[in-house]
Amino acid sequence: MRLELARLHNALGMTFIIVTHDQNEALSLADRIAVMEAGRIRQIASPENLYEKPAARFVADFIGRINLFDARVAAAQVGGICVEARAIGRIDLGGDGLRDGTPSGAVCLAVRPEKLKLWRNRPEYEAIRVAGRVHNIAYYGHSSHAVIVVADSLELTATLYHRRLQIGSRTLRIGDVVSVSWSGDDILVLAASKAPSPDLTLKVARAVRSEGIRSFGASGFLKN
């Protein structure tokens, strides 16, 4: 069905609005996607920007898998901020992950599972690292999802492809003690509140009428 929709879209050259609850369908077919919450559009973006740079906690949690954990801004500094994160400790973050200027107070940190790396020993060169124990592993053929419980009962999910299931000389197993690491560049800083972001519904009509927008996918997702 996805291939047929793509064929029709290319053949007809007209605007398509695809309403779907299948995220893979929206991400693979759409040029622009609108994410809806309670009947209101909360973000409109390309599939890549929507996944890599969600504008709000709801969008980040809705699209794909993601690790979310609470933190508090400890200090503002040149080019970024320092946050105190639950179970992680102090983290220096640059400006690339900040969505709306320099935040203060409580924030939500977000990092995608595929950004996490697992190690037998504590890595020396990774900016962010924490020890934990493998709680569960779900096998999906091309990849697996490993759930690691770290301090304060915080659960982190890591997406591991086949070669990454082999850590050191043996395959990862439930109960293994590992180090989890990732780069500060992979963290997004979002507002801590789950309150709805501004309604963007009117922007859909303007986008559809604008030159060059041929199709939208809407989750109700948008396609160009």
Descriptive account of the structure:
The structure is a single chain. A hairpin with a 2-residue loop joins β12 and β13. Helix content is 17%, strand content 42%. It is of the alpha+beta class. It has five helices and 16 strands. A five-stranded antiparallel β-sheet has the order 6-5-4-7-15. Strands 8-14-9-10-11 form a five-stranded antiparallel β-sheet, with no helix packed on it. The chain has a four-stranded mixed β-sheet with strand order 1-16-2-3, sandwiched between helices.
Topology:
Blueprint: H1 2-12, E1 16-20, H2 23-29, E2 33-37, E3 40-45, H3 47-52, H4 57-62, E4 67-77, E5 80-85, E6 89-94, E7 106-111, E8 117-119, E9 128-139, E10 143-149, E11 155-161, E12 166-167, E13 170-171, E14 177-182, E15 188-191, H5 201-209, E16 215-219
Parallel strand pairs: 1-16, 2-16
Antiparallel strand pairs: 2-3, 4-5, 4-7, 5-6, 7-15, 8-14, 9-10, 9-14, 10-11, 12-13
Approximate helicity band: 10-25%
What low-confidence regions span 5 or more consecutive residues with pLDDT below 50? 211-224
- Rg: 20 Å
| End-to-end distance | 18 Å
Average pLDDT reading: 81
DSSP strand content: 35-45%
Following the backbone from N to C, one meets helices and strands in this order, namely HEHEEHHEEEEEEEEEEEEHE
Shape descriptor reads: globular
Structural class given helices, strands, pairing? alpha+beta
DSSP E strands, number: 16
Biggest beta sheet summary: 5 strands, antiparallel
Side by side, the strands of the main sheet go 6-5-4-7-15
Number of helices: 5
